[in-house]
Amino acid sequence: MTIVAQDPPTPDRPRLRINWVRAAPWLYTIGLFLAWELLVVALSMPVTILPAPSRIFQAILQYWSPIWKNSLQTLFTTTLGFALAVVGGLAIGLFIGWSRTIYAGLYPLMIGFNAIPKVAVVPILVIWFGIGTIPAVITAFLISFFPIVVNVATGLATIEPETEDVLRALGARKIDIMLKVGVPRSMPYFFGSLKIAITLAFVGSVLSETAASNYGLGNMMSSAQSQFNVPLVFAGLLMLAVEGIAMYALMAWIERRMTGWAHRSTMSH
Amino acid sequence: MSHLVSIDDVDMRYGGADGTLAVSGLTMRVAKGEFAAVVGPSGCGKSTLMKLVTGLYIPQRGTVIVAGQQVTKPVSIVGMAFQNPTMLPWRTTLENVLLPLEIVEKHRHRLRANKKEYVEQAEHLLELVGLKGFGSKFPWQLSGGMQQRANLCRALIHEPDLLMLDEPFGALDAFTREELWCVIRDLHAAQGVTIVLVTHDLREASFLADKIFVMSARPGRILRERVVTFPRPRDLELMYEKDFNALVHELHGEIATARQAA
Q: Domain B33-52+71-212+226-247 maps to which CATH number in 3.40.50.300, 2.40.170.20, 1.40.20.10, 3.30.43.10?
């Protein structure tokens, strides 16, 4: 028997393939900044009206220490308010979804409450708690808990009647149906609502910081604006956008991890 | 033979004093171990009948007696299956089948300690309906027919004396439906369970049942009670015999008359 020494077939060099779908968000962002830069140069915009992105990045470097500090502060108030909204929203959502009567009674109140512009609530919060971190946390909470409540309550309210019949005929109590069906069923709605809630929480905290605080990106931007430091205002906006995207991505990741089953099936089944 | 289900002169009205009268003067009896089918024009209160027997509704007039006791609250000796399989998508098929055991008073306290025994029982049922090895799959990984098989297992896991089926095969294609007819036929033979099947498919009723109740249009009551005498075990070939077709034809005529009377 002869053994023919054979070179293992050389594997094809993995060609450098660009995954355009993955690259798209970065390319589009870069594209936006380039277009912006060109527009500012072409129209020779004064920096006090619309600073070019290069000028904004320069401002970020120049004022890095206050920007970093205030960004952390805003992230802190937003996250805390959001965390309260998650706990409160989940609890109120489960409470509202529990019975038709509670749903009917509380829903209009919730709508009315949600319709109140939160900027009108901030002065009241200042009277109660003074300026600073607490009104910002509460405003973030107030503005972001509504979508969580509505989504959780919807998940509970849309249990298929057949499922309920099957379980009730077995002698299931309300609490059994809620725990076995209602709560797991509303989880996709709940995690879906977190993405909306977190972005709203930023709106709330920055709103309150702008109106009544000595810290945070909202306060930083409003004082920069009063000094006509427009690049710093835009730097603050950019930091907010970055924080918002990061938190949104985190929520989307949590959603996928927790309720994978809902993405592979239709809820109506 | 004792009656597992006796319904006597029952009226059931929805939505207060001047609501819709769903059934009126409904009287029927189903013996223990019997396979009964209920057919009728659509909207004749077949589903109301299901809910009356399971204790989800309490009638305004008349009595419903199941297993010697008047029904005043949900009776847990009943298993139910609907046209929509309503499997919970976050549970595996096996966990779905085990769900009633987490509810029924008799089993829920024993479940944790005797998990192994119950799982074996569930797997045995899954095997009976031809779902061996599918327990770990999620419902959305199964076809409609397979989900309906799992649904039957879920209805049977707590060993009910009575199985109530509300058009369970309505949404399936003709071949799958025939397959499941055989599954339910064999389950009935093997488990000795009493079955009440609500359906609008006359061939299904004639093939499976010992007794067929024909209901009138709303408000529903029993127009006729027919005993089906085809010997068991029945084969699908039965459906191509003359007697079978004559029975289906007669039933069809009766329901057509009932529809016209409405």
A: 3.40.50.300
Residue B22, φ and ψ in degrees, nearest 5: -85, -45
| DSSP letter for each residue of B22-52 | EEEEEEEEEETT-EEEEE-STTSSHHHHHHH
Task: Give every residue of chain B whose pLDDT is below 70, as ranges.
Answer: 1, 262
Q: Which two tokens stand for residue B65?
A: 């007696």
Mutate to test the interface with A, among B53, B82, B90 (most CBs of A within 10 A): B90
Measured in whole angstroms, the distance separating CA A56 from the mean position of its chain's CA atoms is 24
Cα–Cα–Cα angle for B79, B111, B115, rounded to 5 degrees:
110
What would the pLDDT profile of A18-67 be if each residue is shown by its tens digit?
888 889 999 999 999 999 999 999 999 898 889 999 999 999 999 999 99
**Contact indicator for A169, B82 with CB cutoff of 8 Å:** no
Q: What is the predicted ipTM?
A: 0.79
Could you tell me which chain A residue has the CA closest to the CA of B101?
Answer: A170
Is B138 in contact with A184 (Cβ distance < 8 A)? Answer: no
